[in-house]
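Next comes this protein:
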Amino acid sequence: MPHNIRRKVIEKYDLESHADPALTTLLKSIATLFDIPIALVTIARGQELHLHARLGIEAVSVPVEGAFCTDVINEERLIVIDDLEQHERFKDFDVVKQDQLRFYAGCPLRMDNVVIGTVCIMDTKPRTLTEEQQQALSQLSDFVSSHLTLVNEHYNLEAEHSLLDSSPAVLIRWRFRSGIELQSITRNVEDVLHLNYEKLMSKELHFELSLTPESQDEFNFMLQSHLSGVQTTECNLEIALPHRKIWVRLLSKAFYSDTGKLHSIQAIATDNTEHRYIEHRLNEANKQMRLLLEASELGTWDYDVLTDTTKVNHRWCDIIGVDYEFYDGSTRFWQQRIHPADVTQVKALIEAHMKGETSIYSASYRMRHENGDWIWIETYGRIVERDGNNTPLRLAGTHRDITERKIAEINQTKQAQLLGFINKARAAYLDNNDLSGACQQILPELIDIADSQFAFIGQVVIEDDRRRLFIHAISELSWNAASEALVDLYKGRKLYFDSFDNLFGSVITTGKNVISNQPANHTAARGTPTGHPPIYRFMGLPIEVQGELVGMIGLANKFGHYTEEDANFLKPLLDALGGLFYAIELEKARSAAEDMLQRMAMTDALSGLNNRRSFYDYAANLQNAPDTYYAMIDIDHFKKVNDTYGHDAGDDVIRHLSQVLKDQLSQDCFIARMGGEEFCIIFENQGPDQVHQQLENLRQTIEQDAIETNGHNLTVSISIGVAELAQKSSDSTLIDADKALYQAKQQGRNQIIWSDT
């Protein structure tokens, strides 16, 4: 390798300096790894081999001639010498003769694919290296190369930051997730913008929140533009300090992931206060001397290609609200006022006409008015002058303000779109009776049609006499650990908002539209949760049915201001959602009424147990069920109770027996009052011994309990007949149990008889 090439690489990475402390630490690890006393990183400098990092040797350099590493550098390969005394050339070296060194292994150190030195190890005794150890030494050489590269880049970066810290331009970097988060800012922010560097880096102070409300809108528009795919933007912002205001010119550039999502934003901020002050004074002076606007409704323009300047008439300036005397005729001035989403299209149309692909230049696009509003411009033009090579020299044309017409067209389109996704919501609900799923389907279209960044749809529910807002659909944001839990609740359809002492809650508490284009100044504003992206504009709309509040829609961060027209536009959607909410409540009420009637039809009113009809419905499904038994129960001498103490006492006895049945028998049992004093129990998945024991306990409890009724304490007994279902029908089993009951009565009552069938 020619020495001059090696020299350039060494100079490029500034390897003229002395030993590298970090590499010395690495060499100690290498020595430990290989169990060896000497380790070096060498750099070849002319006739000397500089020891850039060393362990086990005091010298800082050795002559290239006669160095073990010279062969490694010249041959550009790993060299391992197990025993230097056996080596033909090295055995006569003084360090070998004096038994100072017996082993050497060196690997080339490459930078920019040029061998500039070695990484080597040595020992005072012979030894061998395994293939794995040789590979490890090569890998360590690669690591040293990477380390030297990073060290050089670090020093260069420090130098660049030192230069930036002394410049009049502040470099800012934000990372974007669900919102922007400051990653870095140069320290000269305190000198240039008078903002505290430490507070900015600790997130105690936010750059965007130090701006005036109007500039916060401008900053948000910059962010929205980047989210829309606009790569570079420029804006003028005003920082509100306690005793002064500073105007900042912010040039920003967006960086996107492979999937096209915004990843980060880098910006350069400069103090533009003096320029803005002069501009403001000139504008104020010019407004006092402003001439009458031209009568023509058309604005005219004449563009000189060579000088890149445009001459316009007064009407053109009036359309965009700019003073004619101070109109900037540069293309840059015109392009900066075009809506970022329209710039690419307009440029393409002009270029196509300049290339001769179209006979005229015609376009409709949005431009920013001096008052901050967006107006629609319709422009026509054509090339009016060419040079001898047919190259365009001048274009001329007209501008017309078509804002009203365009807004009407957009509203008509949006009306159709709104109607479409209202029908979509209804159809989605009718398909599967899933209101939350229907709301989630239309939420992205709601966000799009409302020109917003965030939205949610909620329904008011009453639980434990308090009002809650159940969230059917919401923009999913993972802000921090706490809010991730909220997202999990939402995905599980368990997300409720319970506190209404805030901006969106004022919709619930007042039942009225809430529109705030500066939320921080609203009386109900309580800020946003930690980690939540800033809310620059908010609109909350109540959903009502027959004058009663049943839910709401929340929207945030529209490109422009929210207005009552926006609220009126979305009224059909509110009515449609209200109708769905109402229909669902009606369906719930109908279903509850049906359930109640069903329970009433299947329940015995006196005992609260299943009635005879319920018993036969249940038993119909038990044909040929194994381990199933029917027990018929009859209250002994029940007619005597009624005759002696009255029917009220008989009812008390029925209720007492019913309660004992429910308390003592397992939940697996089916209990029914068959009529009068007769009851039937179905035991399932139980053996005969278990069934008998439960019935015996029941019989003893009834016999021992005193029943208080009409001032008397009564005791009664019961007789029980039991039959196994086995392979019989339910009706046959019931007959067998009834026969066994009859037998129990015949044999003296107050006993259990099992059917022998």
Q: What stands out?
A: The longest helix spans residues 131-165. The chain has five domains: 3-162, 167-276, 310-401, 408-588, 612-754. Residues 10 and 16 are 7 Å apart (CA to CA).
